[in-house]
Amino acid sequence: MPATGSAAEPVMKNILILGDSLTAGYGLPLSQAYPSLIQERLKEEGYTDYKVYAAGLSGDTTSGGLYRIDRLLQEQVDIFILALGANDGLRGIPARETSQNLQSIIDKVRHKYPEVKVILSGMEIPDIVPGRYAAEFRKIFRELALKNNTHFIPFLLEGVVGNRHLNLPDGLHPNAEGQKVLAQHTWAVLKELL
């Protein structure tokens, strides 16, 4: 056993957030996107051994995330936050396809890092969308969270959707204040895993 004069360096733990424009902080400086706010909060709360990696890509769908995940798993992942699906809903991609893609992403992450802790961020389509699709889409996330025994954020955009003062002028993407709400929803679940 090597003798050293100083305390061992803390082992860094990685938090990977796989998402779309919400995670990328579309229309905002990166420092105002919720992954950066989570990193700040970790530091404030004394969790200096955690590093947040934001893999947000504007316009990305669950199939795009599935395509990207292998490359992202080259670095150790201790906590994985899956925040994809909004664009699937906007594009009307069949709920079954979205569910299969999300399941495949979770499977790949757990296969590579069996000890990983997984958080699934739920997405919803507004009830104003006619037909069964909105209800089917909403169910995907709850069912996957139960099936995979993951930690769960019921709806990442809760309280932000439809609030003009929390969104950019496009009405779709959170502004800096809206991103703070996304950070709160995420932190409420993440803090239990630290």
Automatic annotation (TrEMBL):
GO terms assigned for molecular function: phosphatidylcholine lysophospholipase activity
InterPro entries assigned: Ester_Hydrolysis_Enzymes, Lipase_GDSL_AS, SGNH_hydro, SGNH_hydro_sf
UniProt-listed PROSITE patterns: LIPASE_GDSL_SER
Domain SGNH hydrolase-type esterase: 17-180
Residue stretches in coiled coil: none
GO biological process: lipid metabolic process
Name of the protein in question: Acyl-CoA thioesterase-1
Organism: Pontibacter akesuensis
